[in-house]
Structure formats: C-alpha cells, structure tokens
Write a structure and sequence with these properties.
InterPro entries: AB_hydrolase_fold, BD-FAE-like_dom, GDXG_lipolytic_enzyme. By secondary structure, this protein is of the alpha/beta class. The protein is built from nine helices and eight strands. It has one domain: 3-Layer(aba) Sandwich (Rossmann fold), CATH 3.40.50.1820. It has an eight-stranded mixed sheet, sandwiched between helices. It is globular.
Length: 282
C-alpha cells in the first residue's frame, strides 16, 4: 500500500467569491499495489468526506473508515475539504476536482471508472450528495473547465446525512455552509437536496438511526422519497437506535463515554461493501 497526499485548490475565480484563505484542501490517497497475478484487475474508488457540520472534519469518520474500504479492495481517497469560514461552493468544487483527479489517474492506479463512489457522513454526506446531484450543473463544471462526466460519481454511500434545509434541517450545518448568505431562500433551496434529486443522481446506499437527535432521520426519509420518485436505485437501512455520528459504531471510533459503540449498527459497512460488489453483477 502507498499513501500519497495531494493539494486540491479552488481559486476565487472558480468559486465566484472571495475566499477566507487560499489554503488548499488535502486529498489523502490510500493505494493498493497492483497484483502480480492479476495486473489487469480494476478496483473501485471511494472518495471519503467525513462529517463535522461544515465546521471541522471529524477524524473518527476518516482513517478508520478508509481502512475498512481499503481492506475490501478499494482505492480510497480521503478529502479534508474546506470548512467555515469558507462557504458554498468551495468544498463542493474541491470534491468535484478530487473526483476528476481520481479519474485522470485511473489507469495508473488501476481504478474502474464505472465505480467511482463518494461516501460521506453527516455534513460530509451532504457534500457527497451535492456532487451526486449537481455534477451536471454548469455553475459547477463550467468554472472548473471540466466536462460534466469528468466530475460525475457513479455511486453514493451516505451515512446519517444532512439533506434538508427545511423543517428537519441541521441548522448549524447550513449556517456554516452558507455564512452570511444563510438567509437567501434561493440558495437554501439549492442546498436542500431532497429538492435536487433527479435522474442524474447515481445509485445510492443510505443509512441512518431512528433515534438520531442531531440530524433527524427525516433527512434520509425525505431523500429516499425523492430518489424513489426519480427512479434512482436505493438501498436504505434504518437502525432502531444510536446517536448521531456513529461512524463504524465500533470501539475504535467511540470516545470515553462509549456511546458510539453500537454493535447492531456495525453491519452497515459489510452491507456497503456488498453493495459496491453488486455493481460487478449488474
């Protein structure tokens, strides 16, 4: 395995407004070596977006998750995207550039370009879903001088995602995402993703807990309804109990309180791995 770090920079011209700083995002690549007995083997790629309410990037949803996907034979890329005081669409453009970067190195890294998956947790799930629904929007691909298909993911794994800016929205995430534009109704509609789902949205794996008090389960239920209406393939799992931010729900990612250790929820990762493999059987 090789670990590489890459800078992903979004300019003020690309995002359309002055940036708080010109610090690049970090894209960490965990790359499996080519197998001598199967040099032609193409691997899925998973681009990870940890949560943190667009205020930070949670380490609990970062490397531990990357190692699980790596063990499943995926090439994994963890994006430490820009957070507040940076505002929309900086992080989205960073993710779009990351997907384009991964695709541009597909031959070198033995990546199957039909299996480029964005995986996000909480606000990172919102970010991943934004790209899944907006990759074909000119405001995104145009300033990046990219073709829409260059930034198009072919699957989404969304873990207790922030989706709606409406009644069940996570207020703090949208305040941090939009900054002083948080009161703009048109912008809030744009980032309320149950309103943006359509046939352009890739196949989706989605999970949440029924008792999530921070990002209510209605976020996932609203998205599921929108995907159903759009005819998008969806696998959804709603677990009966568990707090927000479970990550892998294992002891490794649980803090001193132990409230992120929920054995019943640990199965989501194996289900997600199987979901990735199902693409091979289509």
């Amino acid at each position: 395995m090789n670990i590489k770090h890459f800078n992903i920079m979004v300019t003020e011209q690309e995002c359309g407004h002055a940036r708080a700083s010109l610090k690049p995002a970090d894209l960490t690549a965990y790359l499996l070596d080519r197998l001598p007995h199967k040099p032609e083997l193409l691997r899925p790629a998973v681009v990870l977006c940890a949560g943190g309410g667009y205020g930070f990037v949670s380490p609990r949803e970062d490397q531990p998750v990357a190692m699980e996907f790596l063990a499943a034979g995926c090439q994994v890329f963890s994006l430490h995207y820009s957070v507040a005081p940076e505002t929309f669409p900086v992080a989205l453009m960073e993710l779009a550039k990351s997907v384009a970067f991964v695709k541009s190195h597909a031959r070198e890294w033995n990546i199957d370009t039909d299996r480029i998956i964005v995986c996000g947790f909480s606000a990172g799930g919102h970010l991943a879903a934004c790209l899944g629904m907006m990759w074909n929007r000119e405001f995104l691909y145009g300033p990046l001088n990219a073709a829409p298909e260059d930034i198009q993911p072919t699957g989404m794994i969304l873990c207790y995602p922030v989706i709606t800016s409406g009644e069940f929205g996570h207020k703090r995430s949208f305040e941090q995402l939009l900054g002083d534009r948080a009161g703009d109704p048109r912008l809030r509609e744009l980032v309320s993703l149950e309103l943006q789902a359509g046939q352009q949205t890739p196949r989706t794996f989605l999970w949440h807990t029924w008792t999530d008090q921070s990002v209510p389960v209605e976020n996932s239920l609203l998205l599921a309804q929108a995907l159903k209406k759009a005819g998008v393939s969806l696998e959804i799992h709603i677990y009966p109990s568990g707090r927000h931010g479970l990550s892998l729900a294992t002891d490794e990612v649980s803090d001193s309180t132990g409230d992120c250790l929920v054995p019943h929820c640990q199965g989501w990762m194996e289900l997600a791995k199987e979901w990735i493999k199902e693409k091979d059987r289509e």
